[in-house]
From TrEMBL:
Family recorded in the similarity comment: Belongs to the CcoP / FixP family.
Protein name: Cbb3-type cytochrome c oxidase subunit
Binding site for heme c 1: C121, C124, H125, M263
GO cellular component, one term: plasma membrane
Source species: Rhodoplanes serenus
Gene: fixP
Length: 289
C-alpha cells in the first residue's frame, strides 16, 4: 500500500498528482458547495418532469404542469382583445374610409397604431417616424407609392420588394452598371436632376445635355416634369426630398447602381386589425393627403 504523501508546508495530504513540482492538495469541498450542487441536481430532475424538456421523434415531453409558451401568448392575445372591448371590435369591422370620420374610433386606432409602430416600424423609420437615409420620413406627406389611406394600408400589408406576391415592385435601372450611360453622361443627368430641385451644380457641366439624357431615359417613370409617378413608386425629383441624399455623389451613385430598398410585408406578421391601425396612424402622421 502506497504511503500517504503529506505536504510539508500545509500538513495536508496530497492526491498524488503533481505538475512541474506543484502538488495537488486533497482538501474536501466545502459542505455548503456540495449541498448546493446536490440541490441543483434535484432541481434539474424536477424541472425535467414538470416542464417541457426532452425532444422526441416528432414532438417533446410536455411536462406534468402542461406549460406552453405558445398557449400563454394565445391567452395574452385573448386577454388583450377582451381589454380592447367594443372599440377593438368596432375597429375590426370598420372600413378604412370610415375610421377617420369617427373621432373616438380614430383616437383608438391611432393609439393602437402608435404602439405597433414603436414595436415594429421605429427601428427603420425612427421613433418619431422621421426616417433616415434609405428609410422614408412619414411626416412630410411625400409618398413614393401614394398617400391615400388605402395606398398606405396596401404598402404596410404587402411591403416593397418584400417577396410577397402582392408587394410593391419597381426597379430603377442601374444606368452606369449596365453600361446604358457613360460616367460623364451620368454626371450630366445628376446635375440636371439636382438643378430641378434648385440645388447647386458643378461648374462646366452641360445641363442641356443632361436634360436631353433625362428625357430619353428617365421621363418614362418620373414624368416629363420630373414630379414622379406613385403608381410606379417613382419619386418626385423637384421637391428637395431625397431618400438617399441630395449631394452630387449620392445622386450619381443612385443613377449608376440604382437603389432597391426593401420593406417587409406585415400582413403575415401582424393581425389585420393591427395593420389597419398602423395604416391609420401612419396616414395621419403625413397630414392625411
Amino acid at each position: 500500500m502506497a504511503k500517504e504523501d503529506i505536504d510539508a508546508v500545509t500538513g495536508t495530504a496530497t492526491t498524488g498528482h503533481e505538475w512541474d513540482g506543484i502538488k495537488e492538495l486533497n482538501n474536501p469541498l466545502p459542505r455548503w458547495w456540495l449541498w448546493t450542487f446536490y440541490a441543483s441536481i434535484v432541481w434539474a430532475v424536477l424541472y425535467w418532469i414538470a416542464y417541457p424538456a426532452w425532444p422526441l421523434v416528432s414532438s417533446y415531453t410536455s411536462g406534468l404542469l402542461g406549460y406552453s409558451s405558445r398557449a400563454n401568448v394565445a391567452a395574452d392575445m385573448a386577454a388583450l382583445q377582451a381589454l380592447r372591448g367594443e372599440k377593438g371590435a368596432a375597429l375590426a369591422k370598420a372600413e378604412l374610409v370610415d375610421i377617420e370620420k369617427d373621432p373616438a374610433l380614430l383616437a383608438f386606432a391611432r393609439a393602437q397604431g402608435r404602439a405597433a409602430f414603436g414595436d415594429n416600424c421605429a427601428p427603420c423609420h425612427g421613433t418619431g417616424a422621421t426616417g433616415s437615409k434609405g428609410f422614408p420620413n412619414l411626416n412630410d406627406d411625400d409618398w413614393l407609392w401614394g398617400g391615400t389611406l388605402e395606398a398606405v394600408h396596401q404598402t404596410i400589408q404587402y411591403g416593397v420588394r418584400s417577396g410577397h406576391t402582392k408587394a410593391r415592385e419597381n426597379l430603377m435601372p442601374a444606368f452606369g452598371k449596365d453600361g446604358t450611360l457613360k460616367k460623364d453622361e451620368i454626371v450630366q443627368v445628376a446635375s440636371y436632376v439636382r438643378s430641378l430641385a434648385g440645388l447647386p451644380v458643378p461648374q462646366g457641366v452641360n445641363l442641356e445635355a443632361g436634360k436631353k439624357l433625362f428625357a430619353d431615359n428617365c421621363t418614362v417613370c418620373h414624368g416629363d416634369d420630373a414630379k414622379g409617378n406613385p403608381e410606379l413608386g417613382a419619386p418626385n425629383l423637384t421637391d428637395r426630398i431625397w431618400l438617399y441624399g441630395s449631394d452630387q455623389e449620392a445622386v450619381v451613385e443612385t443613377i449608376t447602381n440604382s437603389r432597391a430598398g426593401v420593406m417587409p410585408a406585415w400582413a403575415d406578421r401582424l393581425d389585420p386589425v393591427t395593420v389597419k391601425a398602423l395604416a391609420v396612424y401612419v396616414h395621419t402622421l403625413g397630414g392625411g393627403r
